Amino acid sequence: MREGITRRVDRLFPVGAEDPRESPARLSFAVNGGRLQASLVALSRFGPHPDGGAARLAFSEADLAARAWLTGEMRTAGLSVRTDAAGNLFARREGRENLPVILFGSHMDTVPRGGHYDGALGVLAALEVLRSLDEQSVATRHPLEMVVWCDEEGAHFGNGLFGSRAATSGAPEEEFHRMDRDGRSLADWMDRYRLDPRRIGRAVLDPRTVRAVVELHVEQGGMLERQGARIGVVDGIVGIHRFEARIRGIQNHAGTTPMAERRDALLTAARLIVATHEEIRRLPGGQVGNVGQIDVTPDAANVVPGEVRFPIEMRDLDDTVVAGMIGRIGERSAALARETGCRIGIERTLEEPAAWMDPGLRALVAREARALDHDSVPMPSRAGHDAQNTARHGIPTAMIFVPSRDGISHAPAEWTSWDDCALGAEMLRRTVLAIDRR
Ligand SMILES: [Zn+2]
């Protein structure tokens, strides 16, 4: 029986060479890396994907079973467990004084063919921190709570960060009517989770009741690996800005219209896409942009395209960098319009400003890394996280990253060495205790 489980786990977790760089401070870790590893393996059994990854979508039977398992683990650890109106799961350890809570955790849901570390590490490291504090009879001034944010990925109903949005800015009514492929609405699934959409407003956290939020997460990129570092201190989560470009030419017969007389909306769109990439690359810095979709009218092989729309998405920590890029793309589009005779309009469709992590907490995380004999790397997060919602809600928030092998995530090959998982958990513990002492 035991062998069976081991074999299955070997398949679930890509077996590779362990990180040879042993942390010199590892022996003095207060968290138990082996127990954290066992928890990660245990969680991986809920919603395993046949090809070795994880398929534990939010609002699914696999997620529900994982939550039941974790609730049991939390209770066994002596924590008091509650679920809020949005399905966020909290487990509390009381403090000595009547102070706001220090909140730390992440999410347990995955994308349809994801990995075993994204979200899971932050959740199980939080549990490991609470277990180790209890074992070592460490009392804190502040109450400590681990949090499992509900539906971070948005892979089931197409709108991520559900639980942390509900806990900060609230979730809009229309969200509950969204349907999945099986014809079930979010409201139906909430009912299965014993949640009532009409009570969602009760999930909103009063920022005065939360001293700080800390989220440990795998990097999901390759910056730490490239720099040979093992701890990232997130300075902010990049803003996401979307625009829609709309190009109007003249729809006509593809055989009878001479080349010189065409006003081809698709050809002009192609040139505008190239110009967009040129403008995004023009500046030094880490800003990124993408055109990943295109809508052609009438979309036929024998018709000169009359109208084309495509979204332009740009991400950067500095919103003024994005404003500059879209300004220059606008100038290029005006020049293209004059040259091609097409009409071009660019309109903003989404503005999600950057979310800065708390400067005092960032410095504190960097200090704790140094105390563990590690250099930390300040870095932006180019993926969205629940931490962006708590930061925007006025709660001092910090994020700690540990390396993702080859920068891979949202894929079965996602991998963070057990040593780095333990280091991340130790960093989380030290950060929480340092916040408690301040
Ligand atoms: Zn995540």
How much helicity do the residues have?
Answer: 25-40%
> What share of the residues does DSSP label as strand, in percent?
15-25%
Q: In the CATH scheme, what's the topology name of the largest domain?
A: Aminopeptidase
| Oligomerization status of the protein chains | single chain
Order of helices and strands: HHHEEEHEHHEHEEEHEEEEHEEHEHEH
Instruction: Report the radius of gyration as a whole number of Å.
Output: 24 Å
The stretches of 5 or more residues where confidence is low (pLDDT under 50) are 1-8, 14-25
The biggest beta sheet reads: 9 strands, mixed
Return the CATH architecture of the largest domain. 3-Layer(aba) Sandwich
Mean pLDDT: 93
Number of strands: 16
What binds here, in terms of ligands, is: zinc ion
C-alpha geometry: elongated
Outline of the structure:
This protein is α+β, with helices and mostly antiparallel strands. The protein is built from twelve helices and 16 strands.
Describe this structure in words.
- The chain has 438 residues and is α+β, with helices and mostly antiparallel strands.
- The chain has 2 domains: 2-238 and 355-437, Aminopeptidase (3-Layer(aba) Sandwich); 239-352, Alpha-Beta Plaits, CATH 3.30.70.360.
- The chain has 12 helices and 16 strands.
- Strands 1, 2, 3, 4, 5, 6, 14, 15 and 16 form a 9-stranded mixed sheet that branches. Strands 7, 9, 10, 12 and 13 form a 5-stranded antiparallel sheet that branches. The chain has a two-stranded antiparallel ribbon with strand order 8-11.
- Helix 2 crosses helix 4 and helix 8 packs antiparallel against helix 9 (319-340).
- It is elongated.
- It starts with a helix and ends with a helix.
- The site of zinc ion (ZN) has 5 residues, from loops.
